[in-house]
Design brief:
There is one protein chain. The protein has 12 helices and 26 strands. The chain is of the alpha+beta class. Strand 23 and strand 24 form a beta hairpin. 25% of the residues lie in helices and 29% in strands. It folds into 4 domains: 154 residues, Roll (DNA Polymerase III, Chain A, domain 2); 122 residues, DNA Polymerase III, Chain A, domain 2 (Roll), CATH 3.10.150; 75 residues, Arc Repressor Mutant, subunit A; 75 residues, no CATH class. This is SWIM zinc finger domain-containing protein. Keywords: Metal-binding, Zinc, Zinc-finger.
């Protein structure tokens, strides 16, 4: 697993300390991108949290996910949450070490009492001393917050502790892109009031035993959810229910639980959002505990077109760090059809430049420290498809195509715009994890893509 490396320079360590006005959590910055350009020490926010204990526990929940592996637990994980200032809110995001759970804490305008929130993105280390300090925040003690990118540190009774940042792995970048694509296809399927949310979530298993293996299903029934053994009409997939355990951190403070998912007849991703005072905590689960978002393949169609690459350059100029990005508005500003705007947003998502907020049903702008082509270079199916298209291995014949790959030739057929293939990948997944390399190569050839542009 490759990782990006950045040089960091801090003016002082970050600290959590007591003052006459309460506690101060200062997160120092070490360079970031803002609307004014790159700054050595930008400031995202300075003010008070209206619900400091809930915010602290929400941040710990995001850190729980970053430190967890829900599959192959013997492997250690050392991934860092990401923080973004979005003008009217702060977003803290993370992925589990297995890349199967995406977590986000949105601290909204009503959860922040202070100056306007600035703009920028970085990953931060939530280490054990910081966890201990945050867990000691109790009651309504005022908490003054100052947020900036890069490194986090905390001063405890034992003295100052500074932890160096761990760079983001490429798998997280692909996970951010795939979770965004999956979420954009979700609908609100159920909303439970506080008491029912507590009852339902506390009834779920917390371990990965036999009761929590594989995909399970729940069916909205009045103000609650009841389990069902199969994906009947209206049911929502709950894959690996033990992966929702981090919601327990803030469950007692929740006012509602919202459940999002697609209409599906098999294992599918879903999102579980706790509504909190001035905040939202959302966990998005991959279709199976053994499947990470990074391999789902939902972005491959957009990456396989030249139009999306050119369109993404145009749309990127219009993002303007907005916390809510509407494709229809971008279509009007850019002169592009809405579908091409959506494809461009998918492509921007592969560089970590946009995410998707289910509560707002809108995209949002962030900036991760990756170059635009990184996801393409490290996506094996896309790389293989470009090589097949570039080498002339695709022969088109109307709705059919033959693709020579290794010692075999595969038949790819197009029906109503969808492609199927005779390869083993298609037999196993039938499009549920994106197109195979042969279908991608056919798509590139049919569209006349400049196949050498992505071959590296």
């Amino acid at each position: 697993m490759t990782r990006s490396v950045q040089a960091l320079a801090y003016s002082r360590p970050s600290v959590l300390k007591s003052s006459q006005a309460g506690k101060l959590l200062g997160l120092e910055t070490a360079g970031g991108l803002t609307p004014r350009g790159a700054e050595p020490h930008p400031r995202f926010f300075e003010g008070f949290l209206t619900s400091p204990r809930i915010a602290a526990r929400g941040l710990l929940a995001v850190a729980d996910v970053a430190a967890a592996r829900y599959y192959q637990r013997t492997l250690l994980s050392s991934l860092d949450p990401v923080v973004t200032g979005n003008g009217d809110r702060l977003r803290f995001e993370s992925f589990s070490g297995c890349c199967g759970v995406y977590a986000r804490l949105d601290v909204l305008r009503e959860g922040l009492d202070g100056a306007e929130t600035g703009h920028g993105t970085t990953n931060v280390d939530v280490n054990n001393p910081l966890r201990e300090a945050l867990s000691r925040i109790a009651g309504d003690d005022p908490l003054h917050l100052r947020v900036g990118p890069q490194e986090m540190a905390v001063t405890t009774l034992d003295g100052p502790v500074v932890e160096k940042k761990v760079p983001l792995p490429d798998r997280w970048l692909r996970g951010f892109a795939e979770a965004q694509v999956a979420s954009a296809a979700f609908d609100l399927r159920a909303e439970l009031p506080a008491a029912e949310a507590v009852r339902f979530l506390r009834s779920l298993p917390r371990s990965s035993g036999s009761a929590s293996r594989g995909a399970q299903w729940v069916l909205p029934a009045g103000k609650t959810l009841r389990p069902t053994t199969r994906p009947t009409a209206g049911a929502v997939c709950l894959p690996g229910p033990q992966r929702l355990v981090s919601l327990q951190r803030v469950l007692r403070h929740a006012t509602a639980l919202r459940v999002y998912g697609p209409v599906a007849d098999g294992a599918a991703a879903s999102a579980w959002e706790l509504v909190l005072p001035g905040m939202r905590l959302t966990l998005t689960l991959s279709p199976e505990a053994s499947r990470g978002f990074s391999g789902e393949g939902g972005v491959l169609e957009a990456l396989a077109t030249d139009d999306a690459a050119a369109d993404a350059e145009l749309i990127s100029v219009l993002l303007a760090w907005e916390p809510r990005i509407e494709p229809a508005d971008l279509a009007e500003q850019s002169g592009l059809p809405v579908e091409r705007v959506r494809a461009a947003l998918v492509r921007l998502g592969t560089a970590g430049r946009v995410g998707y907020d289910l509560a707002d049903a809108a995209y949002f702008h962030r900036e991760l420290p990756y170059d635009a082509d990184r996801a393409e270079r490290h996506n094996p199916r896309l790389v293989a498809a470009r090589q097949l298209a570039e080498s002339g291995s695709v022969v088109l014949d109307g709705d059919l195509a033959a693709v020579a790959s290794g010692d075999h030739s595969y038949q790819v057929r197009e029906r109503a715009g969808a492609l199927s293939c005779t390869c083993q990948w298609w037999a196993d997944y039938r499009g549920r994890r994106g197109p195979c390399k042969h279908a991608l190569a056919v798509r590139m050839t049919r569209r006349g893509a400049t196949v050498t542009a992505g071959a590296r």
